[in-house]
Write a structure and sequence with these properties.
Layout (H helix, E strand, L loop, with lengths): L9 E10 L3 H18 L3 E10 L4 E10 L2 H8 L12 H4 L8 E4 L11
């Protein structure tokens, strides 16, 4: 794909580990940082955050954000969209800090309120 190519809809996925005891605080923190920034960026179609307790005191958290183009993602993430974007207090919560995120082109299916 060229750097300005639009593809319809793109899923940006980031995942890391937090302490299970921090679930509620981290949820609120993300809503006020990344969540606000996602939804304030033109071309963002929304986001979700998922959590999965691993049973050892840690929880896997993933953020899924939906975008209309790679250019829209660049407006949020910077020129190298594969590099994860972090915030000032992330080190307080994160047990892992992945360097990269994934991008997936949506090619089939649908969900209420999201047009492909």
């Amino acid at each position: 794909m060229g750097k300005n190519d639009a593809v319809g809809l793109i899923l940006r996925r980031w995942a890391a580990l937090i302490r299970t005891a921090d679930r509620e605080a981290y949820t609120a923190y993300i809503a006020g940082t990344g969540g606000n920034d996602y939804t304030a960026t033109p071309g963002n179609r929304g986001y979700q955050m998922t959590m999965r307790d691993l049973g050892d005191g840690t929880t896997e958290v993933a953020t899924l954000s939906w975008w209309t183009s790679f250019d829209a993602i660049r407006a949020f993430a910077g020129e190298d969209i594969a590099v994860a974007r972090y915030y000032a207090e992330d080190d307080h919560y994160l047990l892992t800090r992945p360097e990269h995120v994934e991008h997936h082109e949506i090619v089939a299916g649908g969900a209420a309120g999201i047009a492909l």
